[in-house]
Structures are given as C-alpha cells and as structure tokens.
Specification:
The chain has 176 residues and is mainly alpha-helical. The protein is built from 7 helices and 2 strands; from the N terminus they run ααααααββα. It has a two-stranded antiparallel ribbon.
Length: 176
C-alpha cells in the first residue's frame, strides 16, 4: 500500500512536478477563497508568497511537459531556489507573528494610497497587499497561514532537493 502511494507521487520527476503544480493550484485557490469569501486581507508578504507559488507552478508545469533529464534538473533547481525564497519569506512572517514588534508596517493602506497618489502610481502598490503581516487572522490545527506556507515551501524544497540528488547520483534515470 505504501509503495503504491509513493509510486503515485514519486515515480518520476515529471509526476512529482505535476502533483506539485496541482497542490499549488489548490493552495492558491484556498488563499483566494480566504481573501474573497472569508474577507481576509493579504499582507505584502502574503502577496510575495503568492507570486512565488505562481512562479513555482509555471516552472513545475514546464517540467511536466519535458522528458529530458537536463531540463528536469534545471526545473528542479529553479523550484529549489524559488521554494527556498518562499521559505525565507514565510519564516520571516512566522517570526513576526510569533514576536510582533511594537511598531511594524508592511505598507500603506488602500485608501491612503488613493488619496495621496495618482491612480497610475497607486495601482501597482494596491496589488502589493495591505494587511498586517504580524496579524494572525486564520488558523488551522494551531498554525497560521504563514506557518502552513512555511511547511509547504519547505516540503517543495526538500522534494526538489531529493530529486536533484537522485538525478545526480543516477544520471539519466528520468522516466516518462
């Protein structure tokens, strides 16, 4: 049973990247649900993490459609770098949530931007998020969104590192 489950997810780098892309779509969809249906406002660190998830999704999708080991190694390296960046941002946000400073600002609020800037300058900043990076607005099993994101990025980095190690140890072992 366990062997079949491992084979389902880790039979090849392409299959693993495919499942990673599916998981990212699920996480991004849930984030959008929390934003638009629950009413949580993403902070700038959350927006950066979303961008990193989108980049990892696009890179992983590219790896799914390539059968060449060299391309898959490059894709896995990019996933490792992007996931490592996500670990850094999510870890910083987690640290800020656990040890909130007396005065911390992630950015300006939406209305302040519109009142003090022309719309052409305010629009790019609007997409930077306006929530408080230190606030814990939602939890699941005791973990905040930043905690779960840290776990997800760490798992993606470890999986990419594991495949890179395996490809390096057994050159040419990529399978369809």
């Amino acid at each position: 049973m366990m062997r079949a489950l491992i084979s389902l997810f880790f039979a090849s780098p392409r299959r693993t990247l495919g499942w990673m892309a599916v998981a990212i779509v699920g996480m991004l969809s849930f984030g959008l649900y929390l934003q638009y249906h629950v009413g949580l406002t993403p902070c700038p660190m959350c927006i950066v993490q979303r961008y990193l998830y989108i980049l990892i999704f696009l890179v992983a999708l590219g790896g799914v459609f390539s059968r060449r080991c060299g391309v898959q190694a490059v894709v896995l390296t990019l996933v490792l770098v992007l996931a490592g960046s996500g670990v850094f941002v999510a870890a910083r946000q987690t640290w800020l949530q656990w040890h909130p400073p007396a005065f911390y600002s992630c950015g300006r609020d939406f209305y302040g931007l519109i009142e003090q800037m022309p719309l052409s300058q305010a629009l790019p900043k609007i997409f930077a998020g306006s929530g408080d990076c230190t606030a814990i607005d939602w939890t699941f099993l005791g973990g905040s969104i930043a905690n779960w994101s840290l776990l997800a990025y760490t798992l993606m980095a470890l999986v990419a590192l594991g495949w890179l190690w395996r490809l390096w140890m057994r050159r040419g072992m990529c399978r369809a």
